[in-house]
Inverse folding.
């Protein structure tokens, strides 16, 4: 293998704590001349924010090695959709998404706007129902992990989604995200109310996820890092995102670790369901790479 | 028919506006000596709150005629589950639920507690993941319509739900609720993130809904009002709650109105799918009862 793609949460750290041996394992790979790319679905952070997190945790990384779902989504909107300059994205998410959209020159509203962190007022109901409170330039609704999800945001996004032709994108659809050795609501839980509402009005609309396991993200990574897929290994803690991402991307290998979401039982179950579900190999923790080096 | 069960939102009013002719239609039924019960899935209001809403709108009603999903749920917890006094309910919802739980002597936490309307702090992640922030007395998670849904509430509810034996109840699971002639997130959209998270950890747990169309609510109404089901008619604007509630309850009739969620197309579709899906009759609006009287 010449390149290693690393998931971060649950592989390198949990919350604000580095996982045992993870920094040393990365150092070892670097010393062996391996290319390293950090591929994270955490959409709350821009690449620059993510670099700060690496610094805090004490893991060496450069901004150019970081590839997050917010960045992947911004690239998709600007370069694949080629969203016209006079159209806008309505964002449910944090500043990381805003920073990446901004870096790609994409116009947006919502996001961290404090006006969407307040209580609904009677005039809000009327404004949304009549459309007067909606921006006619919005043609995309983008949902990522939002620590400030609110009733008014969900109601507003629902009204945008019901307009003909509006696209529904998601940085990712992970139901949970790992923190402090536990699981917390992920981007897929932020979009869940919208999916419930949309189905109830018989609209056929599902969010298009642009983080792992979406191959749009793999294509973007391949384009940027010129990697040889057959000599690339994806390392992660989730079968349904990381491992699936590597397998569907035709990578040379996938490596599972048990320090995040995936448990040994899940691997056994995946093994029963066939080769195409489970990782090529797994370790209790990334630090064990050193023992096996 | 001797008794009429009325849904409120979308039948009598939309938001804060009475629907044309609805007050007059009710007056006419009262003059004819019909018993009237208002059966609402809006769990944000207690019966007393609901009476105030009737007063504001200008429709005559007494507290005893009102039967809401918050009340229905409180009765279920106190009289059917017989929750021990030292156990507690964790509430996602508004003051209406709290008032009805209080009236039935049920202990609870959460709800309108301002401490759950703030941002997550690093210590919250650790406290939830370790269990230190959880109240060991909580044995029920109850979700209703919550205009103040938040990340910390969803995360907390998720941790309670993962504890063995904890029950998952919902005042109702309507995806949307009508307001200002539009649709807004309903109780079913508030519980959607929890269902998404629970499924992702392979737990078999679905919320038990205690509002329409749950027959637990019909049984409670029958017990309180001593009604003759064969001479009772349910009037509503939703096929999947109101009309289903009446049909499955074996009522003498069901009457649909088109001033809320249901459209004429939905009725045609229900007609195709068989007698057991659609109402026995329908009107453009409740006010049309007068023309046909």
């Amino acid at each position: 293998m010449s390149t290693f793609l690393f998931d971060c949460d649950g592989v390198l750290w949990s919350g604000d704590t580095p996982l045992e041996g993870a920094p040393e394992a990365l150092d070892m790979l670097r010393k062996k001349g391996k290319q390293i790319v950090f591929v994270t679905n955490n959409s709350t952070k821009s690449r620059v924010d993510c670099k700060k997190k690496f610094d805090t945790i004490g893991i060496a990384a450069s901004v150019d090695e970081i590839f997050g779902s917010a960045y992947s989504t911004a690239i998709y909107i600007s370069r694949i959709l080629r969203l016209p300059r006079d159209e806008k994205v309505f964002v449910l998410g944090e500043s990381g998404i805003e920073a990446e959209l901004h870096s790609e020159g994409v116009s947006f509203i919502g996001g961290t706007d404090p006006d969407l962190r307040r209580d609904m007022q009677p005039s809000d109901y009327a404004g949304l129902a009549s459309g007067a409170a909606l921006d006619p330039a919005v043609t995309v609704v983008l949902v990522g992990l939002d620590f400030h999800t609110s009733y008014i945001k969900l109601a507003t996004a629902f009204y945008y989604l019901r307009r003909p032709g509006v696209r529904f994108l998601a940085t990712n659809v992970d139901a949970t995200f790992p923190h402090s050795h536990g699981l917390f609501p992920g981007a897929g839980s932020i979009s869940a109310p919208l999916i419930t509402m949309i189905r109830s009005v018989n609209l056929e609309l599902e969010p298009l996820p642009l983080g792992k396991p979406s191959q749009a993200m793999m294509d973007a990574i391949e384009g940027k890092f010129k990697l040889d897929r057959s000599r690339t290994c994806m390392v992660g803690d989730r079968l349904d995102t990381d491992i699936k991402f590597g397998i569907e991307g035709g990578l040379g290998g996938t490596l599972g670790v048990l320090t995040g979401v995936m448990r040994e039982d899940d691997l056994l179950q995946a093994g029963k369901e066939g080769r195409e579900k489970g990782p090529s190999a797994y370790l209790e923790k990334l630090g064990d790479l050193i023992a096996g080096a």
User: Anything to note?
Assistant: Chain A has two domains: 3-41+212-292, 84-209.
